[in-house]
Structure prediction request, 842 residues.
Amino acid sequence: MWTKKKPCLRIDESYLKCKSPGCEFYGNEEWHGYCSQCHREQFQRRRKKVGFEVQHQEPHNSSSATSLKEKYVKASLPEFSKFEEKKRQQTEKTKKILSGIFRKSPEASKEKVRVESLLRSELREVEAVRQEAQDLLRAIGPAADADVHKCIRSFYKKLVQEVENPMTAIEDLSERTQNFYQLLTKRFDEQAMYAEMTNDQKEQLLDYTEKYAMTYMYQLLFCPPTTTDEEKDLNIQKRIRQLNWVSAKHMDCGINETSTETHDLVYSAITELLGMDSAKAPQDKLACVVRCCQKIFTLMQYCVEGPTSADDFLPALIFVVLKANPARLKSNINYVTRFCNASRLMSGEGGYYFTNLCCAVSFIENLTAESLNMPEDEFSQYMEGKIVPSNTWESALIMCEGMHLMNENLLRFAELSKKSDILGDEAEALRDEMVAFHDEMLQRIDDLKESYPLIIKPLKEPTDLDAEDPIVHELPPPLSPQVVTEKPKVAEIDSPESPEWRLTPLPDPNLTAVNYDFDLSDMSGGDLSTCEDLGTPGYQSMETASVQSLDLNAYHPTVVVKPVETPGAASLLDDPPIQEEVELPSPLKPEPSTSYQGFSSQGWQIPSIPCETGASRLGSDRSPGPMDNS
Amino acid sequence: MKTIEGKVVVLGAQGVGKTSMVVRYIGKMFSHHISPTIGASFFTCNINKGDIRVKLQVWDTAGQERFRSMAPMYYRNANAALLVFDITHPPSFSSIKSWVKELQRNVEEPLILCVVGNKTDLESKRKISREEAEQYAQSIAASYFESSALNDSGIEEIFLCCAEGMITLSQDKLVKTLRVSPSNDRTENGRSERVNVSNHPSASDERPPLCC
Prediction:
C-alpha cells in the first residue's frame, strides 16, 4: 500500500468481460474491470510487490483461488456460500441489476441488520465527538453544520452499501473515503455557505468530519473480515513475542535499561502506544503515535548526550514497539493508512512519526541476525529459546527488582557518606578557624596592651597648692612675670589655694574679654568643684595636672606622676566661694599659658580623657554629679 | 501570498552530520522557542521568497545500514533530497551515489537533489576534493554545497536552494505531491504582513529565512 494507486484501469466500452486475458467471467467496474477472482489475484500480487507484507505469513498468496476459499471458510461458512451464490449470479447479470438483487436477498438484509447493529453500538461515542466539537459547529453556523452532517450521512450510506457487499475490497473503501475527504475539502472551498469560514476552521471541520464518520463506522472499517489484517496481527504479535530477548544493547540505541527514570519513560511511551488500539478515529490513533514518539524523544534526551537524531530515535522506537507488543498493531496501522486523511498522513509531524512506526514494524518483521549484528547461530538459538540472554528487559524487571532497590540504596548510602565526610571536614575547618581566631584575638589584645598600656596611676590626692613642691619650684620662671596685675582681687577670691602662678592670670581687661568664651568650655572650675563635691581625693584634675606639668618637656605618660601633696584640699571642700569663683570668669581663665598647656597635656593623657570630660560637663552645668570615677 | 508546502528528506550514511546540520539550522531559527522535547528528526520551517512562502518539512532519516531497506517509506512523496556525505570519509560519498541510484529508480516525480559535503572544518583531512564532488553533482543534475555544521557555514544556502527549487517545481503542473495553496486573506493576512515587514521589498533572492 505504499506505492501509489495504479492508474485507473476502467474500460469504457466493454466492461462486461473480465479484463484479464483468457478469462471467461464478466468484469466489474468496482473491481477495475476484472472479475472477482482475477481482481483478487491482481490485488494480492500488487500487495506482494509492495513488500510491506510479511513474506512468511501468507502461503496462500500464490494461488488466489485457494486463498479465497481458505479465507472464507475461515471467516464464516455462511458467508462463503453466499459468496458462491453471488458469483453465480454475477455471471448472468450486469452490476446494476446485481446490486438490486443483493439488497433484496435475505442474506443481504441480514447483513444490513448486522451493519446497523454495529453502527448503533458506536452511537454514544459519535455523540461525544459531536459534543466535543460543539463550539466549532456553533461558530460555522447552522446551515454549514447541517450540510456537513448531510454529507457525512450520504457518505456513510454509500459506504455501508459497499460494506454490505462482502466482495468489496478494503482498498476500494479506502479510496472512496479519501475521495470523500477530497470532495469535502473542495466543497468547503467552493460552497457559499462555507465562504465565511477561516482556513483554520475549515481544517477543524475536516478533522471533525473525519472523526465523526470514522468513529461511526469504526466497527465496519477497522480490521474487516474481508482482509487478512487479523491474521497479520497475530503474526506480528507472535513475532514480537519471539523477539522478547532483544535488548536495548542489541538495538544499539543507548537506552540504559536498569535506571529507574528510563523505566518510567519507556513505560509511558509504551502506554501511549498501547493507547492507539483504544482510540477510534484515525487521527486519534495518530495522535497516540505522536505522543509515544515524543516520550521517546524525552527518553533519548535523558540517555544520549546532545540532540536526538533519527539514528538514535528509530532504534529506540523499535525497542519500545518490541517491549510494548501492542494489540492489533497491523490492523491499526492499516486502518490509519486507509482511512486517515491522506494529506494529513503524508505530511506533518504525525506523518513522520507514523512512517517511523511503520518502519519499526517492517524492521521487526524482517529482523535477521545481520540486522542485530550477531552471528546467525546465536540468533537462531535465541529465537528458539535455547539460550536466554542475561540482560533482557523482563529479567531486568523481575529478577532485578531487588537489585535495583539495592543499587539505589547503595547509591544513596554513598551519597550520604560523602555528605557526612564533607560535614566532618567542614566542622574541623570551623574548629581550626575558631582556634586561629582565638589566638589572633589574644595576639591583638596583647599588641594593643603593649601599644596602649594601661597606666594605673596611684591615687592622687588633691594637690596642696600651698605646699612646698620641688616641681613647682622647678617651674620656669617666665610664668610669674605674666601674673600680677590685679593681684588683690585674685587673692581675695582664691585665697585658699592661691598659688601665685595660677591665680595671677587677669592682668588686663583685654585678656579677660578674650578668654571669656573659653571659660565655659574649660574645665578648670568644674573640675575643681567636682573634686570638692565628692570629697574624695581623685586623680589630680586636668587643671592641676597641667599646672603641675607645666614643665612639659619632662613629662611622659608612662611616668607615673608623683602625687602632690595638697594639704589645702580639705579647706577647699568647705569653701563656699567656689561658686563665686566659677561665676567670676576673669580671675581663673585669663591665664593663657595655663589653658594652653592644659590642652597639650590632655593630648598626652588620653586614657584619662573620659572622666575629665564627664566631670567638666557636670561642672559646667554647675550641678555637681554624684559620680566621678577618677 | 502563495504557500508551497514540500517535503525534504535528509539522506546519508551514519555519522556524516545530518542531524548536526539540521540542528544547526533549526537552532539558528528557533533558538528562542524550540521545544526541547522535540527532537531534531522532524521539523518544519518557512522560508519567504518574494511573495511566496515555502514551507519545508524536513525529515531526518536513520543512517544505519540496517535501516536502509526502510528508506523508501521516508522518501516517498518527497520533493527534495539532501544527500549528505563527509568530505573526510570516502565511503560516505559512495553511499551517496547508491542513494541517488535508488532515488532515480524509485521516485517518479521530479526531485530536487542537493549534494552536501559536510565537515569542511576538517579541511586538512579532506579526502573528497571539491572538484570531484561538484562534477558528480553536475552529472546527476544536483546542486553541490559544502558546509560545516561545527562552524555553521554554508547551511542556510542549502535550505534556501531547496526552497527555490520548490518554487520552480510548483510551476510544473505535473508535480502533485507539492501542496500549493493560495493563502486565504482572512487567515494569512496577519502572518504575511508580519513577514513582509521583516523582508526587504526590493531584494528578490538570498534573503534570510524567516520563520514563524
In short: The first strand of chain B starts at residue 2 and ends at 12.
